[in-house]
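note to self — DONT lose this again. spent like an hour looking for the file last time. sequence + predicted structure for the chain T wanted, 364 res
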Amino acid sequence: MPCFCVPWECHWAYTSGLWELRWMGICDSTMGLSTTLFVMAFLLSGAASMKSQAYFNKTGDLPCHFTNPENISLDELVVFWQNQDKLVLYELFRGKENLQSVDANYKDRTSLDQDNWTLRLHNIQIKDKRLYQCFIYHRKNLQGMTLIHQNDIDLSVLANFSQPEIMLISNRTENSYINVTCSSVQGYPEPTKMYFQLKTMNSTSEHDAVMEIIQDNITGLYNVSISLSLLVFPETNVSIFCVLQPEPTETELFSQPYNIDAKPPQPPLPVPDNVLLTALPVLLLVVCAMVVFFITLKKRKKKPGPSHECEVIRVEGEESEQAKERVENRVPERSNEAQCIVNISKTDSELPLPGIVTFIYSEF
């Protein structure tokens, strides 16, 4: 029977340019081959590697990519996965699971798909982001094993950030600025950028801000937020978006629009009731005075006058000194006749007025 060293009694020594495994002389012939495979993994280098992604709290794949070209039976194979700290995730020893060598952090979290030699790691956490290795040995007999396949898997973990959410800190001020904040939570890894986007009918503009980043000590997830004062003109309709860029290769996340409508024209200030009560009597007095004035004016226009029409015709004639005096023309004493008096004043130049004054009257 071959003798396998107990792991905590083994140590490595560098001799003559080679790493050698030495043990303290205490052996356990009943231990599984997984112990030997665990320490033999240190000898491997230059193996192929691949990348794999998994989402937080979901299941990740750690493929081994073993094709088994020689169609070797499972009874002759030893397969196991370990992380970069050499902790075993899973072991398949001669076709049967060996749970004794599995680290406590991975117990009940793994399952093997033997059709494609892929180990599924369940309930992925941020701390599972690391390098893993898959080893496959061919055990021909009790005295020897041959490494026939190795694969390295670099597992990255993602967590989708929540949709960014905008909150108004303060309303629009007199100088048309508003204070807004935006936040997104429970994401991984750190986002590369977060900014505000303002859209109007005619333009779109971006406004960067310093991102505040907080990491949860338990889950390792990130919460991010930004705050900014934005200039919004009162006469313009504006839609504000918050945009989060998780990674350069990832799709940007947009918040719901925060819409700000243009300010309507300011209505006239309401008049207090006491002012109306005070002004009402004054208004009534003014209205009454205007009514009386118009009535009086109308009566004056309708006042009766002479019943005959008098027409003054000026004709050319000789100068007369009597034209300077008041001329009075009396008509016969009849009830239906009219009297006309024409006053002619002397002009400033004291020049005599030419012409002969003729009075024509007619019955109304």
